[in-house]
Hints:
Layout: E1 2-5, E2 8-10, E3 16-19, E4 31-33, E5 38-41, E6 47-50, H1 56-65, E7 70-72, E8 80-83
Parallel strand pairs: 1-8, 6-7
Antiparallel strand pairs: 1-2, 2-3, 4-5, 5-6
Amino acid sequence: MLTIKDKKIFSDDGTFLKVIDCPRGVSGSDLTQTSDHEFHCDKCEKQVVATDSLTEDSIVELITDKPETCLKVSRFDPLFRFEP
């Protein structure tokens, strides 16, 4: 299970993976869906990947291979544990 704490994603073993922080304050209404798990951001023109249809391994691989990737993470995604 991946953990999100203080806007940072950590792997199951505690390894830091990525900071989640959008400098433009994008919300769901700023995203246009382009596939089952991809969106286009209307504010910055980047691709955003929704994690709710991916496996934990594919999320880790994605942000390891392309750390600049923007993610759309749901608070209800069972692959993530949210810590204060």
